Amino acid sequence: MDVKTVCVFCGSRPGARPEFLAAARELGEELVRRNLTLIYGGASVGLMGAVADAVLSAGGRAVGVLPFSLQQREIGHQGLHELHLVNSMHERKALMAKRSDAFVALPGGFGTFEELFEIITWGQLGLHAKPIGLLDVGGYFQPLITMVRRGVEDGFIPQAQERPFAVSASASELLDRLQAGPTMQVTEKWLRRTEET
Ligand code: AMP
To answer: Residue 104's beta-bridge partner residues?
Structure first.
């Protein structure tokens, strides 16, 4: 599948180190260089706002999806090409997933983890075959990768799914990998493996 839109999951906070904001901006600029549309949570704060601002300043296209209930807390971005206001978190994630051809997680908190893991589980179930990537700024995702490895070692995650995502510290290299094709194994194999165990 040709990647035209990229969903970015990331912190609604900027994080404690300047490299996080710098990476968010670099990702935004790289999306525009590749003529890729940003799909994201619609906030103007934290890394979320930084990615969108970078896309817009570079002349790219940005689409946000924000629940009505978070409009105040995350402050809906006013400069987007499209800002969809929805009724729930579930609607938000469903619309973001539907509009996106690939997914990138930048550093973030529980919201980012939740969005990332949900999209991995949807891939595992065969609900989509879209590539997923982690922008591993300053090694932020290394403990998460270790946790997934532990899940494999202890028999909860099939070996074939040990790396359901591409990982890179460089936005450009990560997008190269996502544009090259899916990062997860096909569903049938996963289902068969679970039936065997
Ligand atoms: P965080 O990484 O915690 O700063 O959150 C990043 C984004 O994820 C924010 O826009 C949160 O509103 C969003 N988020 C948190 N939990 C959920 C959820 N269950 N479904 C959809 N979005 C969520």
So the answer is: 8, 133
Statement: residue 154 has pLDDT above 90: yes
**CB 75: neighbour CB atoms within 10 A?**
17
Mean pLDDT of 126-131: 95
Rounded distance from Cα 71 to ligand 1 centre (Å):
13
Q: Which residue has the higher pLDDT, 73 or 136?
A: 136
The number of the ligand 1 atom at minimal distance from the alpha carbon of 43 is 10
Q: Are 124 and 157 in contact (CB under 8 A)?
A: no
Say yes or no: CB of residue 74 within 6 Å of ligand 1. Answer: yes
Domain that holds residue 100: 5-182
Tell me how many domains the chain contains: 1
Q: What is the pTM of this model?
A: 0.93
How many whole angstroms separate alpha carbon 24 and alpha carbon 19? 9
Residue 158 lies in a domain: yes
Show the tokens assigned to 108.
């973030």
